[in-house]
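tool_call predict_complex ligand=D-ribose
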Amino acid sequence: MKLVIAADHGGYDIKEKIKTALLEKGHDVEDLGTDNGTDSVDYPLFAKALCKEIQEGRAELGILCCGTGIGMSMVANKQKGIRAAVLSDEFSAEMTRRHNNANVLCLGGRVLSDERAVLLAELFVNTPFEGGRHQRRIDMME
Ligand code: RB5
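tool_result ok
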């Protein structure tokens, strides 16, 4: 599965940890930046660039990291065809794939430990959408 990942300075550290873990598990992960955690950058630019990869079919799922995950999720959810979920627990990471068919996960580098961020990303990527009645509800979103 082709994955894309991006972060601002607040999410840079967990982006690196998540990317390393997913690559080690054999996933195809493209990193859209940022490339350090010290220079302040604008999260909407990274969120829009990542969503474009999904909208244009070059990636299936994306992971966006900022300080809280909130700003990234606000931008991502304004992009057509994007269903972004900001969360910090395992149940939500699984259910947003199973029921919402979320295609973007938003995580907060100032909220989560590295280990927790990796765990949530792996759950998100490895959980399938259930389809059925959930597809009908998703169709109602657009
Ligand atoms: C950057 O300081 C911070 O505002 C950003 O990473 C994010 O938390 C916004 O939602």
